[in-house]
Amino acid sequence: MAGDSARSSRSFAIILIVHLAVLVLWQVAVDAFHVPKFILPSPLATVQTLGTTGYAWGANTLVTAIEILGGFALGAFVGVALAVIFSWAPLLSLVLLPLFVTLNMIPKVALGPLFIVWFSYGIVPNILIAFSICFFPILLTTARGLREVEPDLLDLVKSLRGSRWTLFRKIQLPGSLPYVFSGMKVGAILAVAGAIVGEFIASERGLGYLMIQVQSSLDTPAMVMAVVLLTLLGVALYGLVLALERMFVVGDARQT
Question: 192 near 234, Cβ under 8 Å?
């Protein structure tokens, strides 16, 4: 236990040092080569844009965070639920899964204008775009995890006359958790992209909307700051998934 904690602390320290080194190198390079601010602002110039009150950084970041989290949560719920249903109803999986594959091939940018026509402007269409991008990897990986049951364990449950619910609760679900969280990690990344796609197409609030607004005035520091905040939102969501994985997967492995 202590060894795992020490390794985690050491890994975190290395990651933090690497990121700080990149920021320092970025600042030194911009200052040394006198790069114009509108081409590549320094980290200090980027952070200074947070003091610009007209950009409403807090409100726009909150809107984008709601879109990302809402799309991801909806995608995780629907993806896992459908995977469970498909594992219990193979015929339904045979009928619907190819349809979901086909629908997933539709460019999500093309769906944006349709979502706006159907649901108008606002947070809801952006949540739906984020959902449409992130739910499919969760569905596929969870369905694969539920299918990969060890034959010996399956025969054991059947010999003990265990019910389908017992098989699911005792074997399929615990065995599929690594697959579920693998899909959720990918979904967390895609949810950020989906929310920004929606804000780029048509939105009245959010970091993507703000980037479109400042682009016309070549306020590159503000655009970079928006990208940084988007990255932080994505890292926070990814870290949440990692924490849940550590709690449910690694924790269960230690108990066994």
Answer: yes
Q: Which CATH architecture has domain 57-248?
A: Orthogonal Bundle (1.10)
Token couple for 42: 């320094």
Find how far residue 182's CA is from the centre of its chain: 11
**pLDDT profile of the chain (256 residues), mean per 10:** 67 89 94 90 92 88 96 96 90 89 83 78 87 93 85 66 72 86 94 90 86 87 94 94 88 52
The stretches of the chain forming alpha helices (DSSP H) are 2-33, 43-48, 57-88, 90-104, 108-119, 123-147, 151-159, 164-167, 173-201, 207-215, 220-245, 251-255
The SS3 call for residue 168 is: helix
The residue ranges of every structural domain in the chain are 57-248
Q: Residue 150 and residue 140: Cα distance in Å, rounded?
A: 19
Q: Cβ of 158: how many Cβ atoms within 10 Å?
A: 10
